[in-house]
Amino acid sequence: MEQKKAILTIDGKTIELPLIEGSEGERALDISKLRQETGLITFDPGYANTGSCKSEITFVDGENGILRYRGYPIEELAEHSSFIETAMLLIFGHLPSQTERAAFREMLSSQELLHEDLLHHFEGFPPYGQPMSILSAVINSFASYHPDLLDIQTEEEFRLAVAKIISKVRTISAFAYRKSLGRPFMYPDPNRSYCSNFLHMMFSVPYKEFEPTRAQIKALSLVLIVHADHEQNCSCSTVRMVGSSQANLFASIAAGICALWGRLHGGANAAVIEMLENISAGRMTVKDYLEKVKRREMRLMGFGHRVYKSFDPRAKILKKAAHKLLHDQDMTGDPLIEIAQELEAAALSDDFFIERKLYPNVDFYSGIILRTLGIPVNMFPVMFAIGRMPGWIAHWYEESRSGQKIHRPRQVYMGPPKRRYVPIEER
Ligand code: ACO
């Protein structure tokens, strides 16, 4: 079949730009030869129209509110899968057989402890240390503890590195929390499931084990599943960019954690709770808040998305899950969920939000679930990072095996033209 092309005429010269078509019909103009043939580059601040790679991992259709991991709809995974099975799907490309899943669970259990020397790192942080900075620093330090995994060549090495990260990230996160409270670290319990073990390390105290309910485990698993990947967002692109220089997996993931930290990305779930609490405490009404948003004095946190322009399917799943968890915990009168719904309804019927196609995103309801689970607000971005780990790893692996060049965008220089150096006494 003849490849489709677009024709570009510039300065009297005509060139052909090949059209690439993805497996779900998304079309892209291949401009990789544009500069070579015309001397021009494209200008796309924020990369909103730029496809940075070909990927087989996650499909998002923002116009129709569709999210699929390796072809499986997020709604089906949320209903039937576990976080670990979803992680395996994203990283290894297929739903695992029972044997594969059991073997991987075994690996996760064998990797859940931290090297005792690594525990000294926690002592070096002040008690008020930010959990995201602790998480990124400790993951980065893995490169020193596992020099054998700096240059991953075999599938076995990759599997081991994956198990180390996925398993230890929850230990590090829980330890960072315990450190901030001055409480003793609770070591992982290999007999517990992934989510139950995390909640145990967070909330058990010596001689008093925390036993999460099934509803709590399910809610946490769901939060992690819906966060597990979201194609080329800011943190994923960061991981791919760092990885494109052939930086090791641990360093690339640490960079992803830092990218996630910002309020416009993984920090938004905490900002949502802050906003709801301000309204709940009577410092502002829903109406006042929306007026301030429309005067551009602030943003409606947990609303809007670069890609989703009808609805975010993750927000739908988490809204339902938040109601279920509150019901199971006998907390149906929780004021924050009421305010969240009032805000959502008011925004969705307001022209400002309608015209800009702004809908609740994943962060609008995830904070309510995390808060109901007893997770403190400064740990919210960390929870996002635990969930996003499989996506980052899958993208790092895909990037490292793609043979793609180092990522290196260009720019349109707008600074001063050439000028002579002026000695300090003449300035
Ligand atoms: N509240 C108020 N106005 C908004 C919001 C919002 N939450 N989001 C976008 N807008 C407005 C902008 O002011 C802009 O209006 P204008 O055209 O009149 O200037 C228009 O909608 C387009 O907004 P952009 O900032 O250009 O959209 P972009 O795609 O760059 O931003 C983002 C997406 C960062 C998510 C934005 O919607 C936002 O800041 N939301 C709040 C923070 C948030 O919830 N982040 C979590 C994102 S999901 C995630 O990371 C998992």
Automatic annotation (TrEMBL):
GO terms for molecular function: citrate synthase activity. One of its GO terms (biological process) is tricarboxylic acid cycle. CDD domains: EcCS_like. This is Citrate synthase. It comes from the Bacteria. The keyword Transferase applies. The active site is at H305, D363. Pathway: Carbohydrate metabolism; tricarboxylic acid cycle; isocitrate from oxaloacetate: step 1/2. Belongs to the citrate synthase family. It catalyses: oxaloacetate + acetyl-CoA + H2O = citrate + CoA + H(+). Keywords: Transferase, Tricarboxylic acid cycle. One of its GO terms (cellular component) is cytoplasm.
